[in-house]
Amino acid sequence: MIYSIYHFFYSLVQQKELFKRLKKLDQFHFDRKLLSCKNKGVFPDLAIRVNKDRKIFTGGELIELKDSDSYTVSSFNSTIPSRSKKIEEIITGESSIIKQQMEKAGNDIFSLPIRDVFYLVRGRKKQHAKICLVYGSFFETISIENLISQSFQQVLEEQLRGSGKEISDELKQTIISILSQQQSFSKVRNVEKSSVKLRFRIMTEVKAEGNILNSKKYPEIKDDTLNFVLPCHNEEHEQNTRKKLEEVFSKRELQSFGIFKIKHHFNGYFLVLQTEL
Superkingdom of this entry's organism (predicted)? Predict the structure, then answer.
């Protein structure tokens, strides 16, 4: 059996009517044969099995579920959205539940060290719904390090202006550089003589320009549709994506979809495969 995010989308299409009926997205009947792990409240919510033969499909994609009672992508807690992640940053010890599940599924986990990240986004508004399986670069339009460092630069400059103090540009850049790693915030800090421990958490909210459910920004994503959204930055990229789609869907099945491009406000074009619920 071949595993990939394309095959995962195929399985969603087969049960697409469930998206409007189920109260919670994690209640969807995901095809467990495709998955190496399934979690709740821990990234990733789902992971695709890794293929031994990776000529066309590598498999191994990581999926986070985003469910909302509006046409706004729900906030990302602790994990900043990204296009890919290192598996070693997710599996941090032998007792990792994710590691145990993946090994039980027969995966050679570290044979694919970098994993593509996808987000299964559902938004509901009145009696309507929009569902998008979207590649992480739709949300990560600059690197996570740049996002964090520029955010802290804004904080530092605001505090310096408010206090009337000045520091050298060299010291400023050193401080920002030190604070630009997300891992710095994932640790619990234990301060002597304090009866509580402290851990900072990052919450990420999607701007209107990155909100694929926003009807004004992305009118092509219609009510009551299921969409597969993939980067399409050049002709070679598009041809490769279409070739993979043809490996999974029959010619007749592909003809039943709406296939078109949308332009991201910050990150070029994406190819959309759309079907009505």
Answer: Bacteria
